[in-house]
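Why do we bother with a discrete structure alphabet at all? Because it lets us treat a fold like text: something you can write down, compare, and reason about line by line. To make this less abstract, here is a complete entry for Crystallin. Read it the way you would read a sentence in a foreign language you are learning: slowly, and without expecting to understand everything at once.
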Amino acid sequence: MKDLKENIKSALFGVAIGDALGVPVEFKSREIISENPVKDMIGFGTYNLPPGTFSDDSSLTFCLAEALTQEFDLKVIGENFVKWVHENYWTARGHVFDIGIATREAINRLAKGERPDLAGGFEVSSNGNGSLMRILPLLFYIIDKPVDERYQITKQVSSITHGHIRSVIACFYYLEFARQLISGVDKFEIYKNLQTEIPEFLKSISINQREISFFNRLLTADIFDLSEENILSSGYVIHTLEASIWCLLTTDNYKDATLKAVNLGEDTDTTAAVTGGLAGLLYGFDNIPKNWINQIARKEDIENLAERLSEKMKIIE
């Protein structure tokens, strides 16, 4: 088992590099991208930004990680999100260039003093992937807690921007998958484990069966057997979760997993960021292509953040 610092570094860089791979082709269709597939870290494109530029996915991931270097406090996490929008905190190159509608609305509510766990939208229409894309650092805070506590804390942190139960379940599934990856469990075994563990736990806390059924392709089928045309890559949280697990289970290294995610098209940066977080944990920092690491914006700052977060988590242990 890799040490804590190594896992944190792998997770943070895993998210950021996946994100940066997807930024130049965000919103392009699968058909358009297939004419000239992404094979390496490129720049410009959609936002005309240099190679290695990460977007809101990573910025908010780093805002969460930064908050976790202190005592756990939803208010601090929310304040960091507000600082990102209003002060360009943890941006790649000094400005915010991409933000989801639900996330923007939630951060506006936070800025006006709304309680953090009530700031996110609770409507069915508020199920974009904006909490899933940034949730991974929470893993290191909840990893040794009992499952009900892991769920409740995940719910609170998701709800800062996305409060609907569907977004919460997606974050919970993702972190449970990541948690078993860190323990060294085989990725297919994890997939099978969660098909029992997730529904059983959700039923035990009386979650509506209809909501659980939205996750049926993960919880009752073998998603890795599906062809690419059956995998969707929009900004809908379930599409992003399914696509990331599919990319992870149908490749065998970090590079192929993240490039596969990018080449699905549409919400390329988030699909690849969410995939990249898991792939980083599974394969480790050393498996991420060196030239990608060297191109990522704020590389030293990310390394420093990983160092500080691991020091804090060791104290909590």
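What the structure line is telling us, in plain words: Residues 4-22 form the longest helix (19 residues). The chain has a mean pLDDT of 97.
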